[in-house]
Amino acid sequence: MALDSMVVDENSPLRIHKIWQGNSAFVVMQSSTNHAEVPHLPKKFFLVIDCHQASFGIRIETTKPPSLQVGSTGLAALMRKYLARVKIIAASCHPSSGDIVLILRGQIPQPGKNSTTFTHSGYLWLARRRPPELNLTLASGEQIFRFGQKGFFNKVKQGQDVEARFRDLSDTPLHPYPLCIHTPETSTPNEPNTAVPPVSQAEPEQAALRHKITRRIKTVTKALQQQQGLLNRQGNTDTVYQQAKLLQAFLYKVQPGDIELRLDEIESGIPGGICIPLDPEKSPTHTLENLFKQAKKGKKTAQLGSRRQVIMQDQLTQLEALRQQLDTPLTSAVALQQLQAQASQLGVKFAVPPSSAPGKSAAASSLFRTIRCQDGTEFLIGRSPSENDLLTKKANSADFWFHVTQGGGSHIILPQSQLRKHKLTAPSAAMIRQGCILALHFSSLKNECSGEVYVTQKRNLRKTKGLAPGLWLVDRSKVIFTKYDSSERDHILQA
Q1: Are residues 263 and 384 in the same domain?
Q2: N or C: which end of the chain has fewer CB within 10 A?
Q3: Which domain holds residue 483?
Q4: In this structure, is residue 102 part of a structural domain?
């Protein structure tokens, strides 16, 4: 890891482009600067504000850090709101307390739901407490939020100016805080090398497959790192269980209103003794139950995480082996198809090619029965209880689901892709009727040629623990009575 540093000042401020919240207590801001004296600094880099006790500080990374939360979180959304039009003009540090402050200049909205007034200065203050805490404070002293290992708090409350707080701590002026630049060099032996060697342009399909496998390797590697982080955070399960056993043994020593139970080395068997925190508002028995539940949940999570980690590591090994086979030209198209099939089983996604046979799509026919109607609409049909479960689980939340209201029958899925193909936002009346006829035909009401059918989206279904294969709970749905004759049914089936 190559290291360098940069000092932020008014002549080379940092501009903020994007903001993410990490899976643990850190914030990442994509930034840029016109600083010309720092070599090897890309046009856009990542400013990491770390609120962990062991790795406290603010640094610059040239690559996007892993373990970022997907989507917009409350903290990220609030920071985007207040920091959209500001620059970081200085990074300072208090020499005795170690607190770090980023000085902001620009248009910062005043707190309020529909505020149209702005202030021109504020501070991102990273306090070196136990645990460390990041807060955004305006020059007026109003605090916008607090964030750290204890969580995110956005309740606005009055506070002191950050610079005033530092002056209260000591008369020593703030010192410039150089931002260390972390630049990754070559990949380590433990990290897969995802560099793509050149492949002959005469083999575009092989090159495309290798590119897809490389992207899948990156995805699995990132998921493996995230899983390892989760397992590391679950490492205190044994400590929690030990506290629960000691509290159970010495429960008689707890008095009403106690906030902790202290046990010496002889009682606990732990060098230096142990202190078990208690909640004075709850009974000791309730605290004991919570400790046992927490330990049990942590143990189960660790076991599941370890199994997932083994599966992902095995998948990564197989993907690496597939990519290695693609480093040399393949001898036939059959060999390429075999590798594509293996890659598909390992999670590599392929675009669904247009169907050459009427009535079935190339991708879906291998898993589920597919019926194509005269207008080109395709429905997926489960042929057994276990296949019904698999079909519904694989369906997207916006896909439409058909099933008879009484008795058993197949699950019928109308994929959202079929609506896009017909440039529709909702199924037409003809599509709904076709789905209802198929649901009735592939059910115990087949000979009735009439009945009521559930028509809803996958998001309105749920599968709870203990339900038999093929059984799902319907939270919300339309019920449509459909009556048809054999000629209409045959017209759909023979299309």
Answers
A1: no
A2: N
A3: 364-493
A4: yes
Same domain, 311 and 379: no
What's the pLDDT at 48?
Answer: 92
Q: What pLDDT is recorded for position 197? A: 41
Among 176-185, 260-269, 287-296, the range scoring the smallest mean pLDDT is 176-185
Which is more confident, 18 or 68? 18
Q: Please tell me whether the overall predicted TM-score, pTM, comes out greater than 0.70 for this model.
A: no
* Average pLDDT estimate for 161-188: 61
Of residues 229 and 187, more confidently modeled: 229
80 in helix, strand or coil? helix
Domain assignment present for residue 217? The answer is: yes
Q: What is the mean pLDDT of residues 46-74?
A: 82
The dihedral over CA atoms of 162, 167, 173, 174, expressed in degrees to the nearest 10, equals -20
Which residue in the block uniquely carries the two structure tokens 């090897």? 40
State the greatest distance between any 2 C-alpha atoms of the chain, in Å, as a whole number: 93
41-50, 168-177, 195-204, 239-248: least confidently modelled range: 195-204
Asked, for residue 162, whether it belongs to a domain, the answer is: yes
Helix, strand, coil proportions of the chain in percent (round to 5)? Answer: 35, 25, 40
Do 266 and 401 lie in a common domain? no
Using CA atoms, how far residue 62 sits from 29, 71, 241, in Å, is 12, 22, 41
Instruction: Give the closest residue to 97 by CA, choosing from 172, 26, 47.
Output: 172
CATH of the domain at 333: 1.10.287
SS3 state of residue 224: helix
Picking from 406, 405, 426, 423, the residue whose alpha carbon sits closest to that of residue 414 is: 426
**Structural domain tally of the chain?**
3
> Where do the DSSP E strands lie in 279-423?
369-372, 378-381, 400-404, 412-414
* Cα 387 versus chain centre, distance: 28
CATH number at residue 138: 2.30.310.10
In a domain, 203, yes or no: no
400: phi then psi, degrees, rounded to nearest 5: -95, 140
155 confidence band (pLDDT: 50, 70, 90): low
Domain boundary (328, 350, 372) is at 350
The CA distance from 476 to 43, in Å, is: 50
Residues in contact with 357: Cβ distance below 8 Å, sequence separation at least 6, in sequence order: none
End-to-end, the C-alpha distance of the chain in Å comes to 63
Does residue 9 sit in the same domain as residue 142?
yes
Decide which of 323, 350, 377 is a domain's last residue.
Answer: 350
